[in-house]
Amino acid sequence: MWLITAGGAMFAAFPHWYATLFSGFYLALFLLLAGLIIRGVSFEFRSKDKHPAWRALWDWSLFSGSFISALLWGVAIANLIRGVPIDQNMQYVGGFWNLLNPYALLAGLMTLTLFTYHGALFLDLKTTADIRQKAHDTALKLWLPALLLVLGFIVASWFATDMFTRGGMLPLLSAVIAGAALLLSGWFLRKKRSGWAFAMTGVTIAFATITVFAGLYPRVMVSSLNEAWSLTIYSAASTPYTLRIMSIIAAIFVPLVLAYQAWTYWTFRKRISVDSHLEY
Amino acid sequence: MDALLLARLQFAATTVYHFFFVPLTLGLSIMVAVMETLYVRTGDETYKRMTKFWGKLFLINFAMGVVTGIVQEFQFGMNWSEYSRFVGDIFGAPLAIEALLAFFLESTFLGVWIFGWDRLSKGLHAAVMWIVAFGSNLSAFWILVANSFMQEPVGYVLRNGRAEMTDFFALILNGHVWVQFPHVFFSALCTAAFFVIGISAYHLHKKSADGEVWKRSFKIATLFGAVGIVFVLLGGHTQAQHMVRAQPMKMAAAEALWESADPADLSLVSIIDEKERREIWGLRIPGLLSFLAYNRFSGEVKGINDIQKEYEQKYGAGDYVPPVALSFWTFRIMVGAGTLMFLIILYLLVAVLRKRYTFHPLLLKGLVWSIALPYIANSVGWIFTEVARQPWVVFGVMRIEDAVSTAVSSGEVLFTLIGFSLLYGALMVADVYLLRKFAVAGTTPATRQA
């Protein structure tokens, strides 16, 4: 849901960024869409037939759709930072394979592992008995790889990109916070404080995002051909009029959305067990 | 094949596919909310079983609508990047607002509705379904605000090599929105009505258990259908009158009217020569087109050839004639399906008001097949309104060939076109399988005892 909103907001606020990114990362976007579609319907379809093959099909679809989405997320973000060939007309001139460089693949592996770890912590928080134990064990296994990949990505970014070296302490500071939170989540996990552990990976993901965009600022997509051809928040933006309208609407409705989403989490705050009765 | 043609094919295929699911979501959400409200008001468990049965079918359909909607939002950037650059300042806003205001509302509260049967009070649970219905229809409204800008651009100025928004409220108050939204809304009610009528007819025919569920569903759906089809026809009529003034070329193409005429005759059937831009043979009702356009039997309706000349002067040399035969026939199929739906509903309404639910078995079987009617009408209606706007992507402002992505090769578009087709085809099989399975199964024994 937030992804669709983000896509719409990007279209409204930075039409050039939306246009360059979506037409440039064309095949990657297609794979991402296919992944999202497959996992989206799998949630709805998987329990709708008792046949084991049916269940297996949608469980496998759910896995592969989510796998692709989580992996491509990192790949896309890394390419924004690293820079891709963009000409003076804001057009992407690289191909598909150009996106699959080692740096981007490292980032993809990082988001994949980090998101899986985050998901395992959520299950640890929300379930009981066997499922909870399984989630807990999975999280324990994933913590170290996730931590190493995040650290590895920070180091790689130091050498492969200019995000920490263009001046300004914010990117480095938020990267340190992201790493520290991930470290802490492992500690909470071992103490069986799954709520805190989950909150910490939330902090990691939030600050990793801040790191990326603070490192890019004021650019949103780096051109590897010529620094001047990079898309910036100025060159890619809509008019002040549209931005003002969108800001007013966001200022009113984002808090409202957050409020009712908080209410739903509160309504369903209890842990779920295999015996819990969810009538539907 | 060139990238432009492939991109257009892809847009047509994915959009028509997406719109298989949308109208049922819009209409059925309201119908399920009505059923649940009846349950809360009367405490009658039959209404609860109805709510659950139709709610389950609603959910399967809803999921498909959502996931195919993501493609809709992304493909403007993927295949139509130059369009997105040119009108993003205007077009992006309603899409973003749709996501934030409407889409969040419907999907969050639908989640609450699914899992909240024993966590919320009865009344609150029914209220949640109303929020879902409101959110879904609000979502359609914003999408049509965006589409209406393409049909009838308002509230903008051409500056810095792009269209820039100058008046947000003009976008919302765009006359086109207010003739298009009612037409879509009421056709969604018809879609849900025929869906419920068809499946209820199946169970009435099979004399399935829980007969009361099918009778009541049949009745509610017929009433929905009656309201829906009357306003679809009236709404379609006002939309056509609007079209004569706002997009005369589209009207002329819909009627295959090559030369201006006063009074203008309405064609029932035409054999069209698109190359020579003339009619070979046509069966026309005198004066009826003028009547439809102006509510009187005189008044000039402009023909394609005259409008072409006018546009050449206004926009420069070029071909401003949309595919006439396609426009003409899609329009006829839409109106034909609508008329058939009107007659069916009229017959059923008389029966239902007399509390008669026994029909000839053949009629009941036919009603199952009539589920297809609104789907046909919805699809050709959209094909008509988008195709007959050509060569414009934004009427009078931007041509289709200037809108397509330049960074994407035709091979890439072909690849994704095939990819989406395979994926969508497979999902359709699964979706129809599930819908059919649950529709045929009827209400579950467990809930029947309750």
Keywords summarizing the entry:
heterodimer, A: 280 residues, two-stranded antiparallel ribbon, 2 strands, B: 450 residues, mainly alpha, 2 domains
Overview of the structural elements:
The complex is a heterodimer of chains A (280) and B (450). Chain A has helices at residues 2-13, 15-24, 26-45, 52-82, 102-126, 129-160, 170-190, 194-216, 240-267; strands at 219-221, 231-232. With 280 residues, chain A is mainly α. Chain A has one domain. Chain A has a two-stranded antiparallel sheet with strand order 1-2. Chain A is globular, with a radius of gyration of 20 Å. In chain B, β3 (266-273) and β4 form a beta hairpin. Chain B has helices at residues 3-42, 45-79, 81-115, 122-151, 168-173, 175-206, 211-246, 248-255, 288-294, 304-315, 324-353, 361-369, 372-387, 410-441, 445-449; strands at 156-159, 162-165, 266-273, 278-285, 392-394, 398-399. Chain B folds into two domains: 3-247 and 323-445, no CATH class; 248-322, no CATH class. At the A-B interface, α1, α2, α3 and α9 of A face α2, α3 and α14 of B.
Q: Helix content range of the residues of chain A, please?
A: over 70%
- Characterize the overall form of chain B: globular
Indicate the radius of gyration of chain A in whole angstroms.
20 Å
Derived structural class of chain A: mainly alpha
Q: Give the biggest sheet of chain A.
A: 2 strands, antiparallel
Report the span from N to C terminus of chain B: 60 Å
- Rounded Rg of chain B: 23 Å
What's the total count of β strands of chain B? 6
Q: Mind summarizing the main beta sheet of chain B?
A: 2 strands, antiparallel
The greatest inter-chain interface is formed by:
A-B, 61 and 69 residues
Strand order of the largest sheet of chain A: 1-2
